[in-house]
Amino acid sequence: MTGTRVPSGAAAPTTAAPAAVGNGSASAAAGAAFVAALTLASALLPGIDEVPAGFPASLLWEFRLASLAVQTVLWATFGLVFGFLAERALVPHPAPKEAVQPTS
Length: 104
Known about the structure:
It is a single chain. This protein has 104 residues and is an all-alpha fold. It is 68% helix and 0% strand. It has 3 helices and no strands. α1 packs antiparallel against α2. The radius of gyration is 27 Å and the shape is flat. The protein starts with a helix and ends in a 14-residue tail after the last helix.
């Protein structure tokens, strides 16, 4: 399914661009073409059974919770580190004072 989303998403803006009907109508036509392509792909492609029969539901649930926890920690760490580094980069530093040369 992802194999159809990416090309359809890339082709959607260019599909309606030649139609000289205005920006709003061109965007609506591109969106409609994108939805139509995905609907057609969903109807024609076979269904996916991701979990075989007899697979323990509790194990699947634990995996999903662990995946969610990993994503939470990952993005929280990215946010905190980026925030710290951005704050350091954006705070103006005072210009260093020039050394005064003694006059003798």
